Amino acid sequence: MDALLRQLHQIGVHSIKSNTAVMLEIMETKVQHAEEIDRLIDSLLNTINEGTQKTVIFQCPAHLLQKMDTVQTRMIVEGQRVNYTRSLKETIDNPAASFDIWPVSEKKSISFLSETMGRSEQEAMAFLQSMKEELPSQADYMFTVYYVEDKPAGVVLPHLEPDTDREGRMFWIGMHPDFIGKGLGKNLHLIGLHRLQKEWKAKTYLGSTEINNVPMRNIMVSNGCAERNTVTSLKYANKNT
């Protein structure tokens, strides 16, 4: 599998691997490599069926996807996502909000993420475990909690994307249900941008959200991000799971 991922990387397909999943993405429409990408992903899916990983997620521009017959046949389209980007060269002012970094493995972190995501604690634990596997050197510093009137109101997980030129991203971001609809999401996102610039020394930020998630799209625009492109998100599940 690692050899296939290296070959994909050489033609512009970025990847991150955990014990349960492989994430692939290509942001630019490199039509000249479509046939080779299609062949390599086909081989990767065969490898997945023989291994322990459960899923493969692939995001790519629609024009490129149209050139990849095998990917279209073997993977299921889950939807479209919109990518936004922002340079972090200009100073981001300190957000007018208080925040703290919580230990990622503590009970309170798991419980708060569970409530914020609307998922079980077991699912929240699995999510954080995948984060630790994908970003082992950063995970302990990512769990950023936004406070409103001394109460935890939201969580954002900023990090540097591996194998990039200091590109900052947010592994996940969300407001607790008790604070949704109060116009506070912009502050939470700004906290993430601030940490990426000041602590991770990120040069750029890349954010992504579902095409129908208008509130998140508006938040990114309000914090100085510009729309970059739209990609199709596909998924493949291991036949042995």
From TrEMBL:
Query: Which InterPro entries does the record match to this protein?
Result: Acyl_CoA_acyltransferase, GNAT_dom
Record's signal peptide: none
Keyword list (alphabetical) reads:
Transferase
SUPFAM superfamilies given in the database record: Acyl-CoA N-acyltransferases (Nat)
Q: Name one GO molecular function term.
A: acyltransferase activity, transferring groups other than amino-acyl groups
One Pfam entry for this protein is: Acetyltransf_1
Please state every residue range assigned to the domain named N-acetyltransferase: 99-241
Instruction: Write down what this protein is called.
Output: GNAT family acetyltransferase
Q: Which organism is it from?
A: Lysinibacillus odysseyi 34hs-1 = NBRC 100172
